[in-house]
Design brief:
31 strands, binds zinc ion, Zincin-like fold, binds (3S)-3,7-diaminoheptanoic acid, alpha+beta, single chain, eight-stranded mixed sheet
Length: about 900
């Protein structure tokens, strides 16, 4: 390992910096061999702190060659400063002073994709969280906010476009033929929001007039070949700008907003001030190359990064423990934006499903942490589902507690109080409290306690007194470092159904949903004037990120699945019914007993298929069996192969029992309309392709249908759905057809990076026999590239996360494949290596032989020399827990 003893950073040790930086001037002379970075920093002693003497200035910096340091214009000789692998310490003699540093870096050799690096010949940056220190020596922490002025110098033939944050204020040509441009950002910002791009790029331009009448120039930059793929992102950007004005009263502040698409990117996108940089897969789309999922993801991510301009940039984080301050809030904002633009119930179902599958698993594993962690070794490891997705659920609960208008009052107060500041989650909660005169003291435990609370509900009906009582108990399992949890404040939205399936009025105002404020370990709620024994509908709308236990019978679940007035809970009842049935089947499969499908699941599906009034988007969700990942999350001990077998069996039975219904709905939804990514059209395609996936189980008889859809589809959504069905169709005669379709798909789209990611993913997800050998062979394919995170995610990530039957095969070769990549990427790109590790960290939840084999791979990784902090932290925690 690089550091013998990697340091743990604690929230409790936070201190303000000794110095502030007011102005940062940067110049980049971009070269093919060497890039020269010059900085000029205006520093000022932090007078909030008491100092006996002027402390040395300790700047962060790695991976660069220091060429020169000046303080107030005077050269500082090597003997006068102290240089380590991670810092540069300078002597200080004045309270305010200027530091000038010259360093050299090699972006073309930077495969970590953090700092300044190259992607397809283009220079670009990624500074959050601590990438800026790979560019120059700096106080690289979010509470140090400066005004930036940046000059970029490069050869105009290769890099005609040179961008940074803010407005371009000057440009010119040097004697050596290189051109330069200077950008100035009038807003103070931390270094993590700095960005630079230089390359040979095209752009599309548009305009947006803000609510106060200012005209903003909007530009999306991409490589020339992708210029026809930017329109959807531009439309999404304009929608986001309008939505943030309408819903939060937030107006854009610079005169220009730019987005740049790059192929090599560790995450989805980055909210750099005025210059968002995006993973190309999260910005580029056209109907014949992008699926509906991609269209919706682009809208959500463009919105997310745009919304950060207020929740993140104007008001930023004091330190990285506060990451959820900007991420949880911004995910909540983008989820509401997507809900307003598309189907609200479907968005809620998707988000809750994702949280319960993936974040609950994180909460139950060795890396469980609160949404505001107490400590970290490598901050990049804390861009987690907990900080983001659970963080958003915590903000949503506040929204539900104070109501829509109260939340707006709270966010107005928060932005007004803290504009231009770097603050903590405490300030956010305080603003919500102060604006609404509510007490969120107990609620704050959501920020400090890890784990998923479980609420156990029992009920009692008293016919004589016409009273109904619900008793709610809460418990939160221990997580690493936190054994005893105090009770949470959990808002539990409930309804009561009468025997006809109608909602019962719960108060004089006639409300049929009520939020129970559960604050104690055990609490009883009494409902009066209840004429008959009701059936409770619990945690409506998924009102809190918790698990609910109530002893529903399968008949009661079937009843709720067809009667609950809460769209989310109708879906949820169907899911619970399916989970109950699939768990029983999995248990039987494990014992090699014969399987039969409970007819109630068929009834529930038939009712959905025959209900023409139902929103097709919701219907598609109701007709999807719980994923193997979700079923695994529910299990005490996970036996992945039994889960797979049970789910495949149920799918097959449903396909056969309802074959006519699947076909009827599939045919009813045929359309020759031109492609549009509207909510209504997406819903119809999603229901149609759900039907197709069941039809693809039916052996030879439906193969012609799949082949026809593959060949005649005029948009990628339908084409990809057909390809996926063909690749996964179990019937033997499907094999040659699938092979031909895959070859045809490759032939047609081999030059298109985004489509090739899809092509790899569909093969990586195939669970049929023989698929693993094929996946191994794809590593050698020219469409694969270990230095591109999207390709790693498409092939190796998809395989490990979504292909349980091959990943968990009993020989352990699936685990070995993943561990081999973690070891290779530990050197090439530590952030991606550490993320890829996730499935192995869950080893303790699996039955044998899986558990021992997964652990052995972790031990093998742990023994590697030169482990990055990223991988070290995750492996160490996994083995220790
Ligand atoms: N803020 C960035 C994430 C940066 C991750 C750095 N390892 C994207 C986002 O959440 O909007
Ligand atoms: Zn974000």
């Amino acid at each position: 390992m690089k550091d013998a003893q990697p340091k743990t950073i604690y929230l409790k040790d936070y201190q303000e910096p000794d110095y502030w930086i007011d102005n940062t001037e940067l110049s980049f002379d971009l070269g093919e061999e060497i890039t020269v970075v010059q900085s000029k920093l205006s520093l000022r002693l932090n007078e909030n702190k008491t100092h006996n003497n002027l402390p040395p200035l300790v700047l962060d910096g790695t991976d660069q060659v220091l060429k020169q340091v000046l303080v107030d214009g005077k050269t500082i000789e090597p003997g006068q400063y102290k240089l380590t692998d991670e810092t540069l310490a300078l002597p200080v003699t004045q309270k305010t002073f200027i530091v000038e540093v010259t360093t050299e870096i090699k972006p073309q050799e930077n495969t970590s994709l953090e700092g300044l690096y190259k992607s397809n010949g283009m220079f670009c940056t990624q500074c959050e969280a601590e990438g800026f220190r790979k560019i120059t020596y700096y106080l690289d922490r979010p509470d140090v906010m400066a005004k930036f002025k940046t000059t970029i110098i490069a050869d105009p033939k290769q890099y005609p476009v040179m961008l940074s944050n803010g407005n371009d204020i000057a440009k010119g040509e040097r004697e050596d033929g290189k051109q330069w441009v200077t950008w100035e950002d009038p807003f103070k910002k931390p270094s993590y929001l700095f960005a630079l791009v230089a390359g040979d790029l095209s752009n599309i331009t548009d305009k947006y007039t803000t609510c106060s009448g200012r005209e903003i120039t909007l530009k999306i930059f991409t490589e020339h070949k992708n210029i026809d793929k930017c329109d959807h992102a531009m439309t999404s950007l304009k929608k986001s700008m309008k939505w943030d004005e309408d819903v939060y009263g937030r107006e854009y502040d610079l005169d220009i907003f730019m987005i740049v698409a790059v192929d090599h990117f560790n995450m989805g996108a980055m909210e750099n001030k005025g210059l968002n940089i995006f993973n190309s897969s999260c910005v580029l789309a056209k109907p014949d190359t992008a699926t509906d999922n991609a269209y919706q993801r682009i809208e959500a991510i463009v919105g997310h990064e745009y919304f950060h301009n207020w929740s993140g940039n104007r008001v930023t984080c004091r330190d990285w423990f506060q990451l959820s301050l900007k991420e949880g809030f911004t995910v909540f904002r983008d989820a509401e934006f997507s809900a307003d633009m598309n189907s609200r119930p479907v968005k809620r179902i998707e988000d809750a499903n994702f949280l319960r599958t993936a974040q609950f698993a994180e909460d139950a594993g060795p890396t469980a942490h609160p949404i505001r962690p107490d400590s970290y070794i490598e901050i990049s490891n804390f861009y987690t589902l907990t900080v983001y997705e659970k963080g958003a659920e915590v903000v949503r609960m506040i929204h539900n507690i104070v109501g829509k208008e109260g939340f707006r009052k709270g966010s107005d107060l928060y932005f007004e109080r803290h504009d231009g500041q770097a603050v903590t989650t405490e300030e956010f909660v305080k603003a919500m409290e102060d604006a609404n005169q509510v007490d969120l003291i107990q609620f704050r435990r959501w920020y400090s306690q890890a784990g998923t609370p479980v609420i156990t509900v029992t009920d009692q009906y008293d016919n004589n007194n016409q009273q109904y009582q619900l008793t709610v108990k809460q418990h939160c399992p221990a997580t690493p470092g936190q054994t005893d949890k105090k009770p949470f404040h959990i808002p539990v939205a409930i309804g009561l159904l009468d025997p006809e399936g109608h909602d019962i009025a719960l108060n004089n105002a006639g409300d049929t949903t009520q939020v129970l404020d559960v604050t104690e370990q055990q609490q009883t709620f009494t409902f009066k004037n209840i004429a008959q024994q009701p059936l409770p509908s619990l945690l409506r709308g998924f009102s809190a990120p918790v698990k609910v236990k109530y002893p529903y019978s399968r008949d009661q679940l079937l009843f709720l699945a067809s009667h609950d007035s809460d769209g989310f809970n109708r879906w949820e009842a169907g899911q619970q019914l399916a989970v109950d049935i699939l768990e029983e089947l999995a248990e039987k499969a494990r014992k090699n007993q014969s399987l039969t499908l409970d007819d109630r699941l068929i009834q529930a599906y038939r009712a959905v298929l025959q209900d023409e009034q139902l929103d097709p988007a919701v219907a598609a969700k109701m007709l999807a069996l719980p994923s193997e990942g979700y079923l695994a999350e529910q299990a005490e001990t996970i036996y992945p192969l039994a889960i797979h077998q049970a789910r495949e069996f149920a799918k097959q039975q449903l396909a056969e029992a309802l074959s006519e219904d699947w076909l009827a709905v599939y045919q009813r939804l045929q359309s020759d309309k031109a492609y549009q990514p509207t909510a209504a059209d997406i819903a119809e395609r999603s229901l149609k392709n759900t039907c197709l996936s069941y039809l693809s189980q039916l052996g030879e008889q439906q193969l012609a249908l799949l082949e026809k859809q593959y060949q005649t589809a005029t948009n990628m959504t339908d084409k990809y759905a057909a390809l996926s069905c063909l690749v996964n169709a179990p019937a033997e005669p499907a094999k040659p057809i699938a092979k031909t379709a895959l070859a045809d798909f490759y032939q047609r789209w081999q030059e298109d990076v985004q489509v090739m990611e899809q092509w790899l993913a569909v093969q990586a997800n195939c669970s049929l026999p023989g698929a693993f050998e094929h996946i191994l062979s794809l590593q050698e394919h020219e469409a694969f590239d270990i230095t591109n995170p999207n390709k790693i995610r498409s092939l190796i990530g998809q395989f490990a996360m979504n292909n349980a039957v091959h990943f968990h095969q009993e020989t352990g070769v699936g685990y070995k494949l993943l561990a081999d990549y973690v070891i290779k990427l530990n050197i090439v790109n530590p952030q991606i290596a550490s993320r890829l590790l996730t499935p192995l960290t869950r080893w303790k939840r699996y039955g044998e032989p899986h558990q021992a084999q997964m652990k052995a791979e972790l031990v093998r990784i742990r023994k590697q020399p030169e482990l990055s902090k990223d991988v070290y932290e995750i492996v160490e925690k996994s083995l220790k827990a």
